[in-house]
Design brief:
Elements (H helix, E strand, L loop, with lengths): L9 H24 L6 H18 L4 H32 L2 H9 L9 H37 L8 H38 L3 H20 L2 H9 L5
Helix pairs in contact: 1-6, 1-7, 2-6, 2-8, 3-5, 5-6, 6-7
Organism: Pleionea mediterranea
InterPro entries: DUF599
Pfam families: DUF599
Length: about 240
């Protein structure tokens, strides 16, 4: 019976270690940086705070509930799509021999044994399972936010009551957005895992490339600049 280390070549283990470092390392880095510099998430939170203040100034809030519903449906779409992807991956897992014969016949793909192919496939499954749980939790939090919006204070409510609502509603929406963002991040790294089936070196390059793309979008994008400007608008 093979041990776990025998499922992959040493080069594959190095590539997997680099991938893990990229994913976990970037998650820790972005979390810490968010406390020091503006990011997409923190800037969007400022804009949502303005939105919640505007909600309290309106007596009719149908448009706001509709907007939250659209956000929720976007996340629901990804959660449903993830289930289909997982179903497809499990189907491939049941037809490993045919897939291996096909991939090993291609000249630009490193040869995979049955054990290594199934292990890589399980890593890919793990990424999408993680994404699904993130998306499903995001959907639930958007549900909570819609309920909170329905219970929002009237425009003539005391100022402290209104501020308490704004803080709590924004907190739930921020957490819902964070869960959605983590799910999307898992999708990005899952794309890197696909390159592992071709070659471990390409897997390492793809993992690094994903980190670079995520960093640019979160800390250096034009979208971030626009959100930072929008967050300075008066309530």
């Amino acid at each position: 019976m093979k041990t776990l280390l025998e499922f992959l070549t040493p080069f594959d283990w190095i590539a997997l270690g680099w991938f893990t470092l990229c994913w976990l390392g970037y998650a820790i880095f972005s979390h810490r940086q968010a406390k020091q510099v503006p990011t997409i998430a923190t800037s969007l939170s400022d804009v949502r705070g303005i939105w919640m203040h505007r909600v309290l100034a309106r007596e009719v809030r149908i448009g706001d509930v509709t907007a939250l519903g659209i956000l929720q449906r976007n996340v629901t779409f990804f959660a449903s799509t993830t289930m289909f992807i997982l179903a497809g991956l499990l189907t491939v897992l049941g037809a490993t021999d045919q897939v291996i014969d096909l991939t090993n016949s291609l000249p630009f793909i490193a040869e995979n044994t049955r054990a290594s192919f199934e292990f890589k496939l399980l890593v890919l499954v793990f990424a999408f399972v993680y994404a699904f749980f993130r998306f499903s939790w995001s959907v639930r939090q958007y549900n909570f936010a819609i309920v909170m919006l329905g219970a929002a204070p009237e425009p003539d409510a005391p100022q402290d009551v209104q501020e308490l609502f704004v803080v709590n509603a924004n907190q739930i929406l921020t957490r819902a957005n964070d869960s959605f963002a983590h799910g999307l991040r898992a999708y990005s790294f899952a794309m890197a895992i696909l390159s592992w089936f071709i070659h471990p070196v390409l897997f390492m390059i793809a993992s690094s490339w994903v980190v670079a793309v995520l960093y640019r979008r979160e800390f250096r994008s034009y979208t971030l600049k626009a959100l930072k400007s929008a967050g300075k608008l008066p309530h």
